[in-house]
Amino acid sequence: MSARIPIIPTIIPAAGILILCGLGRWQLDRREWKRDLIARLEAAGTLPPVTPAEFRQAMAGDISVQYRRAEISCHAGEKRPYDLRPGSSAKGDSGFFVVVSCRPNDRPPDIVAVAGWTRRADARDMALTLDHALAGVVIERPYGDAPDRPRFMLIPDTAIPPLERPRQPRGQDLPDNHLAYAGQWFGLAVALAFIYGLWLRRRMVALPPRGE
Hints:
The chain is 35% helix and 24% strand.
């Protein structure tokens, strides 16, 4: 019986099944990691506001201030926006975050702030008078690991007129669909095993008995 089982056609689907099961297990591990991350981000909002010393520690990579509350002084005078990024209003409408640098024009910013939300795709060309103290939630690495980009972005509770209030980030906004992905990988593994079983059964039936 065992001699009739082809080696190579069996190794290939067996390897595929092991890989698919490994991907499913990886997604389950990712689900636990994501749940822990969401819990830590939700708890960050209850911590005291970030101090200048903590910002320096975060710049050095010693601590994380992700989703912590903070206040920054934004008194850079009249400036054009630093950037325009997709974002939602406090009401949930789609549009753009108008991002500004609270430093003078001749200084590269370590931290930028969302001046507010707008529907206007040409808001990058508007001029804003920055003479505010902004309080809100800190986002670390809003531009990823891109060099010469700000390390932090503040999404404030208020908006600089004529802009509207931006939507505040929350840990529960992070997608947690890893269980569904795990189910897909395990389902593909079961399907591959079933297909291989059908193929092997038909092959065994088609083979003549031994000795003939």
